Amino acid sequence: VCMVAPRPPSANGYIKLSALGSSVFMSMASGGEGPSSSPQRHTNRLAKERSPYLLQHAHNPVDWYPWGQEAFDKAKNEDKPIFLSVGYSTCHWCHVMERESFEDEEIGKILSDNFVCIKLDREERPDVDKVYMTFVQATSGGGGWPMSVWLTPELRPFIGGTYFPPRDHARRPGLKTVLTRIMEQKGTAVAANPGESPPLAPDVANRCFQQLAHSYEEEYGGFRDAPKFPTPVNLMFLMSYWSVNRSTSEGVEALQMALHTLRMMALGGIHDHVAQGFHRYSTDSSWHVPHFEKMLYDQAQLAVAYITASQVSGEQLFADVAKDILLYVTRDLSDKSGGFYSAEDADSVPASGGPEKREGAFCVWTATEVRELLPDVVEGATGSATQADIFMHHYGVKVQGNVAPEQDPHGELQGQNVLIVRYSVELTAAHFGISVEKVNELLASARGKMAEVRKSRPRPHLDTKMLGSWNGLMLSAYARVGAVLGDKALLERAAQAGNFLKEHLWDAEQQTILRSCYRGDEMEVQSPPISGFLDDYAFIICGLLDLYEATLQTEWLQWAEELQLRQDELFLDDQGGGYFSSDPSDNTVLLQLKEDQDGAEPSGNSVSASNLLRLSHYTGRQEWLQRSQQLLAAFTDRLTRVPIALPEMVRTLMAQHYTLKQIVICGQRDAPDTASLLATINSLFLPHKVLMLTDGDADSFLCQRLPVLSSMSQQDGVATAYVCQDFTCSLPVTDPQELRRLLLDGTTETQAE
């Protein structure tokens, strides 16, 4: 790309484009030849122009227009988006893109049939070039020529980039892919009429499973080869799919895929074995060498995925990893106000000094460092092995470093080691002739010493921005992990996060969630007046529902109901169903989109579908159940064709199909007998349930909305559980083991509500 205002490429070599519902990426050019001299089979209207640059495109199989009224009128009359391509006659990469894409018959036809295509010489019209280059720079962080911008018929830009290869190359989407995605956005309205049914859940779920199984990498888990991303939305879908298909081979396979992936990630270098938490993604297929940045949204979703795996499998490893993640967040990403910071950078200055930051410098180790730190000979170990010998064996530390050159393109990790568990504790113990307990003790001691060394190293940059959406995700994590483990400290931290959201990210006067807040110079919290988006509302509401189920304090349920009402006012598409990503009354937003991809974070619509379903059971509001169904119906096309793009939404589709169980506990919130019943419920993975407590107060929030609760009472003065489904409730249960059986297989007598 003939660059303007260059910026270093991001770690994976891509710069994210603006404004598509799913991620589309602009890649940096890396080679090519001069212009071609192919025979002139086509002639378009640019042949009448004087600009050398436009004349260079006069024989493309593209229906080019020069910048002008004729093109604008055609776009309006035919309601087509405009593809604006800007360059100049001596621009090398303009020639490359012309040869690769604009001389391509297939791409030429796609462009001509679906877009009004305009060629512009930036040297003739610098005024026009400047307007759209400003947009590209503002939305992608860089710019240059050729510049590729897509406009509405009113000439407002909605997507911008620079050079695109013609077709997908490695992980780089080509021009054809980008054009196809834009056509899909325009051609497939995400809408449904009230009363329209969602697609059939078992069929959609089976297809989603098959698509995930097809892309699953069996040796190390995860989906596709390098780079590998954690994708918690996929893992949560697989565990939910297993929960309703336990007796089928597909269900067993789904569970194995999820647990193996989580296990391999926990052992890999993507997991910070010294200071906890997970890095952004792995550059290789074995989860070894990561991109070292740590994001709050990854910690939040992975903590939930790991604690869910512990419920499903009973394996202590998964519960330990969930606790580790929250230990990291509490220590390194927490603000004293109760909020959570956004991220830690990948780069930092090496401990050895120098002005240049290096990727991973804070996290990696040389063999010499390890040997100097852990010199003691371990009593009874084979060959007078030192603590360093045992540690280096277990975590794959090598004298020459354990990072392959192809994983280190900039040479920043030469001679360094990224810790990865290479052997089970049992094998390491056998190798050195010592007990498993001794190995565990030695490794824990070594990690503690290394954590102390880390504290003396220059830290990576900490992004202290506190976002509503990501804080909502983290609230869910503390609530859910705290509930499963019965950990009061985690639940107190969750409540602190809930209070933070209400105090600093809720404008009570305007009745709006704020997008973000920051730490001021005096460590005070500053909240700029940027209104929240759909994700902020949806993720916070979900967090509040999880916090209610973990603490059974109705103030959180009450606020969730208020926020859902406000979300409906601000973002709901009354006609087509579902929610727009931003306020449709905001004239500064060029296109109103409904996000249709569960990616690094779930989409606001996927989470909202679940929130509406859960809230309909808590409040008795039937319109929220109908709204959830219409939302799912609106995404029918995407759910039917590519459910792998919306695994979180498929989970809600399944929850609607199998109907939620209402688990009602009659008892005093802090009483031991109530706690025993709750511990039983929280030990199980029950994706299709709502949990509520009634203490006999007819004026309570829940009894006011669900009068039937008033007819439920304690048996013989003991905390009592009722399990209801489809307006039918079980007979009352007071014994935790009997409740467990009832929840797992439903075997008990029932009575009509």
From TrEMBL:
GO terms for biological process: carbohydrate metabolic process. Residues 43-184 form the Spermatogenesis-associated protein 20-like TRX domain. Gene3D superfamilies: 1.50.10.10, Glutaredoxin. This is Spermatogenesis associated 20. The gene is spata20.
